[in-house]
Design goal:
Length: about 210
Amino acid sequence: MLNFLSVLLKKFPSRAARTHTLSQSGHRLESGRQPLPASVGILADIAVSCLRDQGIQGVILDLDNTVVSEDDRYLSPYAEEWIAQAKEGGIQFFILSNGKRRYRVDYWSARLAIPALSPAKKPFPKSFRRALTTMGLTADQVVVIGDSRHTDVLGAWLTGCPCIQVASLPHPPRWWERLLGKYVQTPYSLEQKLLDFHPSTYRYPS
């Protein structure tokens, strides 16, 4: 059963990536243009020029273990610089987080100047459609970027968006991750740089 689940979930990224081997007009892309990758190590590995080549105008972005580890220990290297670069290129952002600690989501929404919804209840399409409506874009103009196949990748697939999966930032595994993590997440490379994060500016509830 677990092997079947693994095969099924691994089909979602490649299917989503293939949707953008064609241009918005339906014609095959010219040689030399970069297709969207199905997966990368970190956000900063994604070439902003690649997004523009594929007609991407918006990003639905996961937060926990994509931008910052859910235990607030690590930041994805150069993620903030990459987001700033993408914004300068005219790309919009919307954060969808399943995290229930709203003060964290509010903090990162303000820090990154990106609207956010939490808890987003991914992979159900309702929150993805809300993000599309807020950005004023269609599904084929928006790429979903996150670390989990069962929430980010599956949600993108159900909504009709292409998706890029990143490796999960190191974090203490929850019980279900001990059982199923290898089927739905890609481990962070030990050779990849990590940035420490100290959440001293969070406003913790009393």
